[in-house]
């Protein structure tokens, strides 16, 4: 077996499959594109689902990749096990309707055992297979695998809902008896016993059936296009080939661990308890890559996952004695380890460091707040002579403030308190259930549509014409090909078309189809790409249409022109965002409609009003500069050398279109555009908002819609001017300022009058002092307009020694408001009001010196006041 670095393993994998005719698919962004079923890209096949379900036919049916992936459904096990990670790399080879079982197994065995490639010892490989899959068993035997190295496993069948499914065969490496102290042997595999001896290094899924949950597995129909889907974990391969005890002793993690040693002054012992080192090394990789791909820490979704990872790693840093922010210092090491295949981490190093450091500093403040909460919590328990912290409170400290259970236990020990661990674990399980329920179960692919997949007729989109004559080559009605149609809905393919198929955020063209006599025979309502890439016209048929006939295709020119204005403005907006708020503001989705444009981008905070103003002004300046727009068709490598920016989520072939707008913007884009920026006319931002953790959205309009937006604002301003009785719009600001000043003065005057009135009333109220248990208290009903007046009474009461406790009740509208104030250490205002509030069907709380409550039963006010003394 060869001794290879992780980079060499990855490259050898790709080189081998390339030698077998596979196209190398670049690693996709960790944030899924157009796939709401996934929180993260979580496998090598996740980005290839469109090929497997037949919605897109790849240029090459043989694909290989090294895909960065994140799985976070079991974060708590990271650091405890030898091979559990949040971010990992999945190596894969895939066949989309091309080779199947025989070649997949034969080539897999060749890659693993050939001296030219990985050179694994054959006697160390063990293989599992689905018991009913005799073909797979026989194929492994034909490759030279001994029968006693083949293990049948009933679970070796891959299916996840409706869609492609099939048996799978897994390859394991035997690390020997040193990792099997009880000498259990192959039972570890056959009975699926957790172990460190047999390491799964590769899974080959033989996707040959269309799974249907409504029928038994034996009744599944064969797929019209059988596929191969494989996955091999780079981290596991590295551990085996580098002779590492765990994945963490490989060159993928050890450099990070060495840096943590320097920062902590502690030493990593491969045979000791190194959980903190492992957690930090794992989590900083996930953080660096995810943030580099546009995800940012936050309170929900992907953002919550990242925040949780960062806080967990930070707390483990504290366990190692690191008290200052330190995770951001590890980003360069992560980048250097992965640079050969993922240069983007070092390219975005400064931004990633900035986000991580900011989050670490924020967490330090949260920990301080959490410490205060923990102290208050334990004080309350001590006051009630309770010595156990509930599981619910332990979970709150963990989930809200980032306190590991060990930290809470340490604080509790100082106060001679214990923890309700069972309650905490129950709360954790509930959270995990909620998290799993919140994620749409993805991975299941759509059923293959054989009719669409078999459209092979050529079709060319003509960028330069808005109308042309073309031959009709395909008619599909009710998912069947037909020769002619005269009414209803249909899908049409023409040899050439001026209709743009929806792609890259630009909506499809609409328009008309006419026969040779100029009669309207169909309306085009949408255009999408067929699996093999042809523009597929969705039409409402109005007259006779037949195959092989010539038709006049005319797009809706007005609609196309409006869409082009918005699409071209999107390019200007993207460049302006870079210039105003930073290069990290990359596209995370867009929509260019007829009436508006929508642009989503990565950014970690609200775009300020001043920044929006600068962005809007910069875009309009480029419109006024009348910049020429040209499109260049070239190869991808040349386009990148030109500095063309790729758009988020777009798939580019070797030949690409580069859209150049003066010397201001250059992007890869397959859409249609104007000839000059001046045609946009005007640009106006309508709205800026957050749509998810670390993602913002700008909605804007151009041309006529922009003019109408300004006109609407002007009309509203005129309404204000009329209400203020000013004749000129420019007089409105001064008039509003004067009115505000007058209002402020009146409010001050009214507040003073209220205070005088309250003082006068208070003089009588504060005379009615009662005593109980040595405490003086006042309990009265007052007639006030709002709850704020109760606070005014309390402020007056505090300034004099009227009593130790004050309880005031007021019926305000349909509600009852209660205020409790205390100067006595023996009376906690918050606790007292909690005891009194239920009397009026209310609830409330507060601090030891001041608390308020609201209720709905005014008839019980007298009862509440009478029972104050009983609760002191």
From TrEMBL:
Localization, UniProt: Cytoplasm
Keywords: Aminoacyl-tRNA synthetase, ATP-binding, Coiled coil, Cytoplasm, Ligase, Metal-binding, Nucleotide-binding, Protein biosynthesis, RNA-binding, tRNA-binding, Zinc
Residues binding Zn(2+), per UniProt: 567, 571, 669, 673
Cofactor: Zn(2+)
Parts forming coiled coils: 710-763
EC supergroup of this enzyme: ligase
Cofactor remark: Binds 1 zinc ion per subunit.
UniProt cross-references to SUPFAM superfamilies, sorted A to Z: Class II aaRS and biotin synthetases (SSF55681), Putative anticodon-binding domain of alanyl-tRNA synthetase (AlaRS) (SSF101353), ThrRS/AlaRS common domain (SSF55186), Translation proteins (SSF50447)
Pfam family of the protein (one): tRNA_SAD
Reaction it catalyzes: tRNA(Ala) + L-alanine + ATP = L-alanyl-tRNA(Ala) + AMP + diphosphate
Record-linked PANTHER family: ALANINE--TRNA LIGASE, CYTOPLASMIC, ALANYL-TRNA SYNTHETASE
Function: Catalyzes the attachment of alanine to tRNA(Ala) in a two-step reaction: alanine is first activated by ATP to form Ala-AMP and then transferred to the acceptor end of tRNA(Ala). Also edits incorrectly charged Ser-tRNA(Ala) and Gly-tRNA(Ala) via its editing domain.
Family under the similarity heading: Belongs to the class-II aminoacyl-tRNA synthetase family.
UniProt-recorded name of the protein: Alanine--tRNA ligase
Taxon lineage: Bacteria, Bacillati, Bacillota, Bacilli, Lactobacillales
């Amino acid at each position: 077996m060869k001794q290879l670095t992780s980079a060499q393993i990855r490259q050898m994998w790709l080189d081998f499959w390339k030698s077998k005719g596979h196209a190398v698919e670049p690693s996709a962004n960790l944030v899924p594109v157009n796939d709401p079923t996934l929180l993260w890209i979580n496998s090598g096949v996740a980005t290839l689902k469109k090929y497997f379900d037949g919605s897109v036919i790849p240029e090459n049916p043989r694909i290989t990749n090294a895909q960065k992936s994140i799985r976070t459904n079991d974060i708590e096990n990271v650091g405890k096990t030898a091979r559990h990670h949040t971010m990992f790399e999945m190596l894969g080879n895939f066949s989309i309707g091309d080779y199947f079982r025989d070649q997949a197994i034969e080539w897999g065995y060749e890659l693993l055992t050939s001296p030219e490639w990985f050179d694994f010892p054959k006697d160390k490989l063990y293989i599992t297979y689905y018991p009913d899959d005799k073909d797979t068993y026989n194929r492994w035997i034909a490759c030279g695998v001994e029968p006693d190295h083949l293990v049948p496993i009933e679970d070796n069948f891959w299916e996840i809902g409706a869609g492609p499914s099939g048996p799978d065969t897994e390859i394991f490496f035997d690390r020997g008896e040193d990792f099997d102290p009880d000498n259990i042997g192959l039972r570890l595999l056959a009975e699926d016993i957790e172990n460190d001896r047999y390491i799964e290094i590769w899974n080959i899924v033989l996707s040959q059936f269309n799974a249907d949950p409504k029928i038994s597995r034996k009744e599944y129909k064969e797929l019209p296009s059988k596929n191969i889907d494989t996955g091999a974990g780079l981290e596991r391969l590295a551990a085996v080939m580098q002779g590492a005890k765990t994945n963490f002793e490989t060159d993928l993690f050890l450099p990070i661990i060495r840096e943590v040693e320097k920062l902590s002054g502690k030493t990593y012992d491969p045979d000791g308890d190194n959980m903190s080192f492992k957690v930090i090394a794992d989590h900083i990789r996930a953080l660096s890559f995810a943030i580099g791909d546009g995800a940012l820490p936050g309170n929900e979704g992907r953002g919550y996952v990242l925040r949780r990872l960062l806080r967990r790693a930070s707390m483990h840093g504290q366990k190692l004695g690191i008290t200052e922010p330190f995770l951001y210092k590890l980003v360069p090491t992560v980048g250097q380890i992965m640079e050969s295949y993922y240069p983007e981490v070092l390219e975005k190093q400064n931004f990633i460091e900035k986000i991580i450091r900011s989050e670490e500093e924020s967490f330090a403040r949260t920990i301080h707040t959490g410490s205060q909460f923990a102290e208050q919590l334990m004080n309350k328990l001590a006051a009630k002579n309770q010595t156990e912290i509930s599981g619910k409170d332990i979970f709150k400290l963990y989930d809200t403030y980032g306190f590991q259970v060990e930290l809470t236990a340490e604080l509790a020990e100082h106060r001679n308190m214990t923890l309700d661990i069972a309650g905490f674990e129950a709360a954790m399980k509930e959270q995990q259930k909620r998290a799993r329920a919140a994620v749409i179960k993805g991975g299941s692919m759509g059923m293959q549509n054989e009719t669409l997949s078999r459209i092979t007729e050529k079709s060319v989109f003509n960028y330069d014409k808005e109308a042309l004559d073309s031959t009709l080559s395909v008619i599909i009605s009710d998912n069947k090909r037909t020769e002619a149609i005269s009414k209803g809905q249909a899908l049409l393919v023409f040899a050439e078309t001026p209709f743009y198929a929806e792609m890259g955020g630009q909506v499809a063209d609409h328009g008309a189809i006419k026969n040779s006599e100029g009669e309207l025979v169909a309306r085009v309502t949408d255009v999408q790409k067929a699996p093999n890439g042809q523009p597929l016209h969705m039409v409402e048929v109005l007259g006779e249409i037949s195959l092989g006939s010539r038709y006049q295709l005319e797009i809706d020119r007005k609609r196309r022109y409006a869409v082009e204005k918005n699409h071209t403005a999107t390019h200007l907006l993207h460049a302006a965002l870079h210039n105003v708020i930073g290069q990290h503001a990359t596209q995370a989705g867009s929509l260019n409609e007829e009436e508006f444009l929508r642009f989503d981008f990565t950014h970690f905070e609200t775009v300020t009003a001043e920044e929006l103003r600068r962005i809007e002004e910069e875009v309009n300046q480029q419109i006024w500069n009348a910049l020429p727009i040209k499109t260049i068709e070239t190869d991808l490598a040349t386009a990148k050398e030109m500095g063309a920016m790729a758009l988020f989520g777009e798939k580019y072939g070797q030949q690409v279109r580069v859209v150049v707008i003066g010397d201001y913007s250059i992007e890869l884009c397959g859409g249609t555009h104007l000839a000059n920026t001046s045609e946009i006319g005007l640009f106006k931002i309508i709205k800026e908002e957050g749509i998810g953790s670390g993602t913002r959205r700008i909605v804007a309009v151009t041309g006529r819609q922009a003019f109408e937006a300004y006109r609407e604002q002007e009309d509203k301003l005129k309404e204000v001017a009329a209400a203020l009785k000013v004749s000129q719009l420019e007089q409105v600001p001064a008039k509003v300022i004067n009115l505000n000043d007058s209002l402020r003065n009146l409010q001050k005057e009214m507040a003073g009058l209220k205070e005088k009135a309250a003082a006068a009333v208070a003089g009588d109220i504060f005379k009615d002092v009662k005593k109980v248990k040595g405490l003086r208290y006042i309990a009265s009903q007052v007639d006030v307009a709002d709850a704020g007046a109760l606070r005014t009474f309390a402020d007056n009461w505090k300034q004099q020694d009227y009593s130790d406790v004050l309880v005031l009740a007021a019926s305000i509208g349909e509600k009852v408001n209660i205020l409790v104030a205390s100067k006595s250490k023996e009376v906690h205002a918050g606790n007292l009001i909690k005891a009194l509030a239920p009397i009026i069907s209310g609830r409330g709380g507060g601090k030891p010196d001041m608390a308020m409550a609201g209720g709905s039963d005014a008839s019980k006010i007298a009862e509440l006041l009478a029972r104050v003394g009983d609760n002191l």
